[in-house]
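Repro case for the chain-ordering regression, as requested:
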Amino acid sequence: MSQPIQPTKTLDVRGEKCPYPLIKARQEVLQLGVGEVLKVVATDRDSVRDFQGWTRSAKAVQLIQQDVETDEQGREVYIHYLARQA
Amino acid sequence: MDTSPKVHEITAQVLYDEMRRGDPLFILDVRNEDEFASWRIEGVHPLATVNVPYFEFLEDETGSLAKVPRGGTVTVVCAKGGSSAFVAAMLTQEGIRARNLQGGMLAWGDLHITIPISSPREARTIFLQVNRIGKRCLSYFLASDGAALVVDPTRHIAWYTSLAEQHHARMTRVIDTHLHADHLSGGPALARRLGIPYHIRLDDAWGAEFTPASLQDGTRLPLGASIVEVLALHTPGHTPGSTSLLIDGRYLLTGDTLFVSGVGRPDLGAKAEAWARLLYRTVSERMAGLPDEVLILPAHYASRAEMQPTGLVAITLREARARNPIFQLRTEQEFLGYVLEQLPPQPPVYQEIRRVNLGQLELDAEHAGEVELGPNQCAAVRPPGSSRSL
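-- result from build under test --
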């Protein structure tokens, strides 16, 4: 966590509600090459817990970090970094 | 990419009605495993339930589908109704009869069921137990001669105002038996909305942002021009201000003081032993003076084992004296040992809930729903049959 993560691609799913942040993130990350990272920006608070649960059993995806930030509209946003694995 | 319009939706109320009828039900809960472990739909009768998180249907569709029975109807449930609609659509495409619980566990936790209690003065009186089944919170609606009072209302105050409308009664007062720590009270909001008194004992309302109406021991609370008698009895122990209401000498609304199969935990104020001694005196002296026929109507229950076949959560003092272990303890020492040794952990959110109930803190609707998720933890000892695991 010491080095800033360099995402290959960013997916904006702000405003989308469960299950779509996860479904869309999964589609996107599986398009990436092995070792590449997808950054997901979501407003759905439930995505935090769901991404954790999903990546515990997911075969080709690893959750490397989650952050909470405030976006330019003052909304709380949840950032997920997903790495594509072999 | 939207929810398939083909998915059949049902409301929490319809699901509950089916449970009561004893319809065969199969629940597929698609939330995370830890959410499922901490809180799930429980039936009136034992319920067939399986937990397969919705993302498992993406990762391993075949394996996940294999866990769902074919032949019957599957009711799919998640936190708010979105993921379950997605899975229900998937099952429908597979030829499985599936339907989605609208609003998910959030809607289930908000469902209030009303069950009639045989009325104190028959014809002109309406006496109802209002059961918020997802939280196992009980409140009471009593109307007579056009006037109504509500005891221990939940924050969903529209349920009570619509009951009053339905029974052509004007609400005249609202009472909390004690300061609730496990759920948000609707008492202050209901009183403010209708401009009527909100009663809670001052011992439980220190630091409150509102001035409560009095609830002194031995006072009679008038109910319009009605002849129904509502008598306040100070029954401390769960909290210092805990008060029970004796209706017509026959029904005792005990709050969290006495449950069908236990007593209220005395440790929510960091003075567990002192409060447990108060509770001992309440149970061994105050309750001892009441006749066997009195029907105990508590503010919570821990499992459906505490329900009568009608769904009413109640027990006569006669039965309670025979069956509730709390009445089998002969000395104060035995009593203290029993209630202090098996205390369940105190959810950290209780402090926040108390502050809201005192008017010191306000929460928006979404956050209010979140602090209240899951069943109550108000009993001193979790009775057998309660399925909640921590």
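Ordering looks correct now. The longest strand of chain A covers residues 61-70.
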